[in-house]
Amino acid sequence: MVQFNIHSEIDIPASKQLLDQIRFAIACRQYPPGHRLPSTRQLAMVTGLHRNTISKVYRQLEDIGLVESFAGSGIYVKDQGYVGSTSDNSHLLQQHPKASKIIKSSVDDLLAQGFSLTQTRELLLEEIDWRLRCNQKLLISVPNRDLDAGNIMLNELEQSLSLPINLVPLEELTEILEESNFFGTVVTSRYFIGEVLDVVQSKPVRVIAIDIYDYHKELEIVKNLPKKSCLGLISLSSGTLEVAEIIVNSLRGEDLWIMTAQANNTYKVNALIRTAHTIICDTASFPLVKNAVAAIKEDLIRIPKLIRAQKYIGNKSINLLKKELGLGHDS
Q: Is 173 contained in some domain?
């Protein structure tokens, strides 16, 4: 069960702490699609928050498209799937939503058994035709406010998929889709899936949400850091830093001093290196931070311990994306 940590002594509102912790749990698939979230009563007992506060957080999650509520049943993580199908049978899939899941599962099973895409297309012509057309073009789209997160995704997916991929700010996505008559796949982080779906709506594209790595190893390190020590967090992405700071604050409260810096801000990175006892940085930032430490090593009273976090996108999520694109997956 996901543990939530709410600290009243820090400046971040309790509702914001809970909201970001739940968003993180959804984004890294600790709460997978279809998972039922704890009731307001359960969360109230665990966090000490008023049930009205928890209800407000759940409404916020529903407004941004991450969860959906069912009267008498509860709050569930949305199963974000395909949108905008141009199939003549799309009305049948809308009437029978389970059929879509069965078709996709069948395709994955056939590919896993060694069938080629051509052979599978003969068996499930409509679904395979849709996948092949969508695979012709692949876009990553995130909001301008965290375009660096998109660059991290772009670098990691290009290395893993060996496909041409373009990064498009969410604010420009509508124009790109309309001007180029785009027919393909749009990939985004689950953090931004609601915003992307709002833009795409009924356009003939497939949208796939990427689950980020859950950083459980790094969080275990944070749990065991000495009290009153200084932890430095460095990333290319400002959004990642914001969420990471909230998660760490919620985990440790005021007994840990936290400094953050974007990797391209040389002044802040150097100040952080001179102060922090431990530095955790993302994979893309690690070489820059390592070189920065080496450059001022002679001036340092204490050399900080550098920890390179795992990749932003977990291997499981990469393999799932490969399956969706018909590329196979790593064993």
A: yes
**Distance, CA of 329 to chain centre:** 20
Which two tokens mark 242?
């914001």
Q: Token pair of 250, please?
A: 């919620």
pLDDT, tens digit, for every residue of 198-241?
998 877 788 889 888 889 999 999 999 999 999 999 999 999 99
Do 222 and 293 fall into the same domain? yes
Residues 161 and 142 in one domain: yes
Q: End-to-end alpha-carbon separation of the chain, Å?
A: 28
**Cβ distance 27 to 211 under 8 Å?**
yes
pLDDT digits (tens, 9 = 90+) for 35-76: 999 999 999 999 999 999 999 999 999 999 999 988 888 899
Q: Does residue 211 contact residue 29 with C-beta atoms inside 8 Å?
A: yes
The two tokens of residue 317 are: 């999520």
Residue 331 lies in a domain: no
Cα–Cα distance, 4 to 16 (Å, whole number): 12
CB 145 within 8 A of CB 172: no
Tens of pLDDT along 69-109? 888 888 999 876 544 444 455 555 556 666 667 767 777 88
**Number of domains forming the structure of the chain:** 3
Shared domain check, 182 and 40: no
Residues 134 and 206 in one domain: yes
For residue 13, what pLDDT is reported?
A: 94
Q: Which residues are 187's β-sheet partners? A: 140, 208
Could you give the angle at which helices 315-324 and 147-161 cross, rounded to 10 degrees? Answer: 70
CB atoms within 10 A of CB 33: 15
> Sign of the C-alpha dihedral, residues 189, 191, 192, 198?
positive
Instruction: Look up the domain containing 97 and give its range.
Output: 90-212+315-324
Specify whether 206 is located in the same domain as 224: no
pTM here is 0.72
